Amino acid sequence: MFKKFFSKLSKRVGIDLGTSKTILSVQEKGIVMKEPSIVAINNKTDQILAVGEEAQKMIGKNPKFITLAYPLVNGIISDFEVTEKFLKYFIDKLFMENLNLAGRPSVVIGIPLDVTEVEKKAVEDASLSAGAGKVYLVEEIIAAAIGARLPIQDASGSMIVNLGGGKTEIAVISLNGVVNWRSVNVAGKELDNDIVQYARSHFNLLIGHRVAENIKIKIGSAFELKEELKMEMRGRDLISGLPREIIVTDYQIRDAISKSVATLVDYIKATLETTPPELVADIYERGIVLTGGGAQLKGLDQAIAKAAEIPVRVADDPATSTIRGLTTLLDDDQLLKEILLPSANEEKMVR
Question: What is the Cα–Cα distance from 171 to 125, expressed in whole angstroms?
Answer without folding.
Answer: 27
